Amino acid sequence: MAFASKDLSVIAYANGFTLWHYTTPDAAAVVDTSGYFNAASDMLRIGDMILANTDTEGGFASGILHVSSNAGGVVDVDDLTSVGTVNTD
Prior knowledge:
mainly beta, six-stranded mixed beta sheet, 42% strand, single chain, 4% helix
């Protein structure tokens, strides 16, 4: 799939920093590829963080993406930093 702007929303904004939420059926390895968020380049700033729910129709992975660059309309985020551990009930 591809980036869907309807699935990106602001959680909080303060002092030039925005905390976002994004949900997608795309795998984390796709989402954290340079250029995935290009359509949102006018909104995302370096240092912003995105709480992401990825692979929502498969294995499901949650974590944090950090916007590491945004120049010339090309957005890059760092690899997904996972949140949570395996539940061993």
